[in-house]
Specification:
By secondary structure, this protein is of the alpha/beta class. The protein has a single domain, classed as TIM Barrel (Alpha-Beta Barrel), CATH 3.20.20.100. It is built from 12 helices and 14 strands. The strands form 4 sheets. The protein has an 8-stranded parallel sheet. It has a two-stranded antiparallel ribbon with strand order 1-2.
Length: 322
């Protein structure tokens, strides 16, 4: 199985994103920020099935489900901590009891409070990768990088990164000794050449979210809308693939135009979307989301197929340019 490198750790070329398994949470106005109701036992079974299939990298954030995602992930990997690489994020303040994200705090003092809470929820004494979640000005973020370096020296984290789609932010920490990655959006529907170039030049891992376009590239039905506490029902501006819980006609057409290429070689649509990301750069670590064992098996099945060819990569670009 092909692997990637994040800092001093080798990981599976495919990671799993744990946003969806956090369950419902919202902002202070009641807008959903999660993916709806979840079954924790099913989530744990899915994580363990992914591990059985060779997945060793799991990405979460303290705010997902207002702490719940970290707790579920911690339960799932208990007794197997040394077999997995875990990433989380900080910077959002939330109330675990009410499941509400209340504010943002990007001070070094809160960072230290947040890492201790994350380690407690995960049931571990160290974190492999700690990522800044919000987007403060670069000047303000410098103090956070200083604190992150201290956390590396103290053994609380092995490395750190910024979860950002802004190339200026991605470059700001790139030369720091403990900075080992950038997490950013990347999919066949949204390329990110500037950040990929930064990762190449500085030897950083490229950790890729929105690989399946919030489910659109996972085969999300255009006739079955998301409901309830699912962020796709609210569709904030950045979540451009959905409107009122269903994929927009424009994005659905783009997916259909790519389907033949992405499903080549016996791949499912999701596996083809993951394969595109691998073909884009040898530094990429896609982290598609999941909520059940079936989705975990489908995502992990991409490992057996490997990346698309460079010719197929060009074909996808040509289709989308028409």
């Amino acid at each position: 199985m092909e692997q990637r490198v994040i800092g001093d750790r080798r990981v599976s070329a495919l990671g799993f994103g744990c946003w969806a398994i956090g369950g419902p949470f919202s902002d202070t106005e009641g807008n959903p920020l999660g993916w709806g109701e979840v079954d924790d036992d099913e989530s744990i079974a899915a994580i363990r099935r992914a591990m059985d299939l060779g997945v060793t990298f799991f990405d979460t954030a303290d705010v997902y489900g207002a702490g719940h995602s970290e707790r579920v992930l911690g339960r799932a990997v208990a007794g197997h901590r040394d077999e997995v690489v875990i990433a989380s994020k900080w910077g959002n303040v939330f109330d675990e009891r009410t499941k509400v994200k209340t504010s943002v705090d990007v001070t070094p003092e809160y960072m230290r409070t947040a890492i201790r809470a994350t380690l407690t929820r995960l049931g571990t004494d160290y974190l492999d990768l700690y990522q800044l979640h919000p987007a403060p000005p670069v000047e303000q973020a410098e103090a956070l990088a200083d604190t992150a370096e201290e956390l590396v020296e103290e053994g609380l984290i092995r490395g750190y990164a910024w979860s950002t789609d802004n190339p200026e932010h991605a470059a700001a920490w790139a030369d720091r000794p403990g900075c080992v990655a950038v997490q950013h959006e990347l999919s066949v529907l949204h390329d990110s050449p500037e950040i990929l170039d930064i990762c190449d030049r500085h030897g950083l891992a490229s950790i890729n979210r929105t690989v399946l376009a919030m489910g659109l590239l996972g085969g999300r039905s255009t006739s079955r809308p998301a409901t309830g506490a699912d962020i796709r029902t609210a569709a904030p501006e950045w979540l451009r693939f959905f409107e009122k819980g269903v994929p927009t006609p424009e994005w659905s057409r783009r997916v259909e135009s790519l389907r033949e290429i992405l499903t080549s070689g016996g791949r499912t649509l999701a596996q083809g979307a993951i394969a595109w990301v691998w073909a884009r750069s040898e530094r990429t670590v896609p982290i598609p989301g999941f909520r059940n064992v079936t989705q975990a098996e489908d995502n992990a099945g991409a490992l057996a197929h490997g990346p698309l060819t460079q010719e197929q990569l060009k074909e996808c670009a040509a289709v989308l340019s028409d």
